[in-house]
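Researcher: We're teaching a course module on how sequence relates to structure. For the next exercise, students receive a sequence and then see the predicted structure as C-alpha cells, so they can try to spot secondary structure elements on their own. Here is the exercise chain.
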Amino acid sequence: MTKQEKVQFVIDTLEEIYPEIPVPLDHKDPYTLLIAVLMSAQSTDVRVNQITPLLFERADNPYDMIKLTVEEIRDIIRPVGLSPMKSKGIHGLSHILIDKHNGKVPKTLEELEELPAVGHKTASVVISQAFGIPAFPVDTHIHRLMYRWNLTNGKNVVQTEKDAKRLFPKEKWNDLHLQIIWYGREYCPARGWDLDNDIITKTIGRKSVIDEYRKLQAKKMK
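Model: And here is the predicted structure for the students to work with:
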C-alpha cells in the first residue's frame, strides 16, 4: 500500500466503526468545554465528567466563576488532580475573558493560548469542538497510533501534529482526531493491546512494532 492508500484505509475504517462520534467531555457551550479540557490534563475524561457538574452547578460562566475563590474552585476539582494549578488557571482565565473578551471564549488559537493554563492542545480542542474550526489536537492516543501506523516518526507531539495535518484532508481533521482517540482506547491501547482486534495496525502497522508485539506474545506462550 502507498502512504496515500494507508491514509485512506485509516479514514474509511474509522468512518465505518464510528459513523457517529461521541464527544468525550460533557459540556454545553465553549466556556464549559474550555474548563473541562483544562481540567482533563493528566486526568481521565470519566473523572472530569464526574466533577464538572459539581463545579458548573456553582459557576458555568466566567462571571459566576470569579465570584468563587481559587480555594473554593480547588476544593471542588481536587479529585481530577493538579488542582492548585488548574484552579488558578480557571479563576485567572475567567477574569481575562471578562476583561478582554466580553466574557466570551475567543475563537483563535493565539488568543486562547494567551490564557493561563491553556496550552496548544487545549486551545486546539476548543476551536475544533466548540467552533468547528479545523484543528488536529494530538494527545497520547493519537501520538501512539500515528507511530504504530507508521504515519509519523514519533519524535514528539509537535511532529505528529504536523504529519497528521499534512497527511489527512483538512475537512476531516475534527472528526478524525476524535475517531482516533476512541479507536486508541478501544482497539489499540498502550497496555493490554490485542493486535488481532486492531484491524488498522494489523493491516498497515509499522513492521518493527508488529515484530516486537509478536516477539512478546511468543515469550508469553513459552
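Model: If you want an answer key for the exercise: The chain has a mean pLDDT of 97. The chain is about 65% helix and 0% strand.
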